[in-house]
Design brief:
Number of helices of chain A: 12
Number of strands of chain A: 0
CATH architecture of chain A: Orthogonal Bundle
Order of helices and strands of chain A: HHHHHHHHHHHH
Structural class of chain A: mainly alpha
Oligomer: heterodimer
Strand content of chain A: under 5%
Shape of chain B: globular
Number of helices of chain B: 8
Helix content of chain A: over 70%
Strand content of chain B: 25-35%
Largest sheet of chain A: none
Order of helices and strands of chain B: EEEHEEEHHHEHEHEEHHEEEEEEEEEEE
Helix content of chain B: 10-25%
Low-confidence stretches of chain A: none
Radius of gyration of chain B: 25 Å
Distance between the termini of chain B: 39 Å
CATH class of chain A: Mainly Alpha
Structural class of chain B: alpha+beta
Low-confidence stretches of chain B: none
Mean pLDDT of chain B: 85
CATH superfamily of chain A: MetI-like
Largest sheet of chain B: 6 strands, mixed
CATH architecture of the largest domain in chain B: 3-Layer(aba) Sandwich
Strand order of the largest sheet of chain B: 6-7-8-3-9-10
Number of domains of chain B: 2
CATH superfamily of the largest domain in chain B: P-loop containing nucleotide triphosphate hydrolases
């Protein structure tokens, strides 16, 4: 009797869940076994052809490698920068609120708008970035038109946008640390560097791992920055997985193939991030 | 090791206020090199504030702190070479017990061989030898506090070891043992040990000199015996001794003092008529007699508490209540009896302060 009522009350939630998660997932899997494209839309059955094509598609695997590089490099840089900034303002009580608001701005800006601004900044003849380079005597840099520099530009924008997030998270962590170990370290005669490595850093390890994992998940979805800033170019030098899937699916309308790419990407991400999270949290608990 | 002088030290947490409240009233103190001292007083009396001033965690709002006659008032904690153990265990969680103990030595860049020797010595004293390689975070609160104490003891050349009620979290059995060990260690190495506590037994057993504090003021500094025999202030009489010193209201009369109808002849001078007078006597020095004797006063027993080894009897005469501490073997008094007050053990307090003939 009660079981029936319970199910009845749960039903709306379950239905919504089905509609927004399970159905699209199932449908995508089904689509990935079809040859649905702009010429022949429809759910035919071509078996694993899409997957076979994907394995041979070096552009997809290169995009995946690039994505790994971009996420790991940018998250590490964000962590180091964010931690340094947090340490700098940690003990300074005045202005703390102002600084926090200031740091929130990059995070609150819409990625597309922000990328447009950065594209202007990086503009080779009109952008202020090259003016600055001229000033310090390096001369104009081809920010967006050479392979390495385009990748660097994407990294710069990523780091600029997400360092504040790290900063805020780590600052909150620092502020929640107990005072006593620091007093004890001072009494034991430890200088600032020793105190950092023996007291601050070990106590921050749990929150650091949390912050890094959250950022890695976020960073692996990078797409809008690339889209606006470089459109994956020059060539395919800054293409990331999600951007490549977007090209295949929504520009070339190879729905079936892009579904196969999406599913593969999802599986790889789930496995990779789970392993990373496990390894990192084991590092912390073992200490 | 060093001697420490506190000169006109006072501390207010808000010295710029119009009418600053002082956590520590101005005082002077001298800690001798190698002495064992206890700071005794109720919670909030300024003991910890004084300790933090010495370790540099707090800069006093007034006065000077001298270590071996050098002014260190504004020197940061790191450079003071002082050890301090807190009330609650503070350990470096990510390190092993060995590394915890070695940490202060690594900070002074001692060589590996000497570090190993010192750590093992201290671990041996505190019975930590068998668990040195364990993670400091994985042991019980007792052991964690032992580690904290060990970190305080591991440096040989510190100016002083400050301990802020370090045995509070340790269970009673071990507490007794540790107290003995601390005394032994400080005697062996000649450390200047300053020990904060609100437990008078701890203070009396551990220290050569006890400083009694109340409300930010130093009431008395002296040996345990002195504090017991001649409390300089009624507060000290109350605070030291179990049960506390008896205080009886009394009034001035020609050539002596009247406690109700009982007359105590005394030569007194310079006492204002308006002064509040109290006669103090330790319960240990009060006895009873079945028949009237010299210095006795008829009294009635109100209550007897037998605590096994000893008994506490409360007697009443006139408006006064007097407690006596009697050995458990003696015959316990009851009903009407005679209270014997020994004159040589009676102390007169004028407005709370011990009267002494000038």
């Amino acid at each position: 009797m009660f079981t029936k009522y319970k199910l009845l009350f749960l039903l709306p939630g379950l239905l919504v869940l089905m509609a927004i998660i399970l159905f699209p997932l199932g449908f995508t899997i089904r689509v990935s076994f079809s040859s649905w494209d702009v010429i022949q839309p429809g759910l035919d059955w071509i078996g694993g052809n899409n997957y076979a094509r994907m394995i041979a598609d070096s552009r997809f695997w290169e995009a995946l490698q690039r994505l790994s590089f971009i996420s790991v490099a940018s998250v590490l840089a964000q962590y180091v920068l964010g931690f340094s900034l947090a340490l700098m303002v940690w003990n300074q009580v005045r202005m703390k609120r102002f600084i926090r608001v200031l740091f929130l701005i990059p995070m609150m800006t819409t990625p597309v708008i922000m990328s447009v601004i950065w594209r202007t900044v990086f503009h080779e003849s009109l952008g202020p970035a090259n003016d600055l380079m001229n000033l310090i005597g390096i001369g104009p840099v081809a920010w967006l038109s050479t392979e390495t520099m385009a990748l660097v530009s994407v990294l710069i924008v990523e780091i600029w946008q997400w360092t504040p997030f790290m900063f805020l998270l780590l600052l909150a962590g620092l502020l929640s640390l107990p005072k006593e170990p620091f007093l004890a370290a001072a009494i034991d005669g430890a200088g600032p560097i020793r105190t950092f490595f023996n007291v601050t850093f070990p106590m921050m390890s749990a929150i650091s791992v949390g912050a890094i994992i959250i950022r890695l998940i976020e960073a692996s979805k990078i797409m809008d920055t690339v889209y606006v800033l470089t459109s994956g170019g020059p060539g395919s030098a800054t293409e990331t997985s999600s951007y490549y899937i977007y090209i295949r699916g929504l520009r070339d309308f190879q729905i079936g193939y892009s579904a196969a790419l999406s599913i593969t990407y999802l599986v790889i991400m789930i496995i990779a991030l789970t392993v990373i999270a496990k390894v990192l949290s084991r590092l912390v608990t073992e200490k | 090791m060093a001697s420490i002088d506190l000169k006109n030290i006072a501390h207010s947490y808000d010295p710029t206020a119009k009418d600053p409240i002082f956590a520590l009233q101005p005082f002077n103190l001298h800690w001798e090199d190698g002495g064992t001292y206890a700071l005794l007083g109720p919670s909030g009396c300024g003991k910890s504030t004084m300790l933090n001033i010495m370790s540099g965690l707090l800069t006093p709002s007034h006065g000077q702190l001298l270590v071996d006659n050098k002014d260190v008032t504004h020197l940061p904690t790191t450079q003071r070479n002082i050890a301090q153990v807190f009330q609650f265990p503070v350990i470096y969680k990510s390190k092993t017990i060995y590394e915890n103990l070695a940490f202060p030595l690594r900070c002074i860049k001692m060589n590996k061989h000497d570090i190993d020797r010192r750590v093992k010595e201290v671990a041996d004293l505190l019975n930590l030898t068998n668990i040195l390689s364990k993670s400091a975070n994985s042991v019980s609160a007792d052991t964690k506090q032992l580690i904290s104490v060990g970190r305080g003891l591991v440096r040989e050349n510190v100016s002083a070891i400050l301990m802020d009620e370090p045995l509070t979290v340790i269970d009673p059995q071990l507490k007794f043992e540790l107290r003995r060990k601390l005394k032994e260690i400080s005697a062996r190495y000649g450390h200047t040990l300053i020990y904060v506590t609100h437990d008078q037994n701890e203070a009396m057993t551990l220290a050569d000199q006890v400083v009694v504090m109340d409300k930010g003021q130093i009431m008395q500094m002296g040996s345990p015996e002195e504090l017991f025999e001649n409390p300089s202030h009624m507060h000290v009489g109350y605070f030291i001794g179990s049960p506390a010193m008896n205080f009886m209201n009394c009034r001035l009369s020609d050539q002596g003092i009247h406690i109700d109808d009982h007359f105590v002849p005394m030569e007194l001078e310079g006492i204002a008529d308006s002064a509040a007078l109290n006669m103090g006597v330790r319960p240990e020095y009060v006895s009873f007699s079945d028949t009237p004797v010299a210095n006795s006063v008829p009294a009635e027993i109100v209550e007897v508490q037998n605590l096994g080894k000893y008994a506490i009897a409360t007697a009443k005469f006139g408006n006064q209540r007097v407690k006596a501490r009697l050995s458990g073997k003696s015959k316990l008094p009851s009903g009407a009896t005679n209270l014997v007050l020994h004159k040589e053990h009676m102390r007169l307090y004028v407005d709370g302060h011990l009267y002494s003939a000038s």
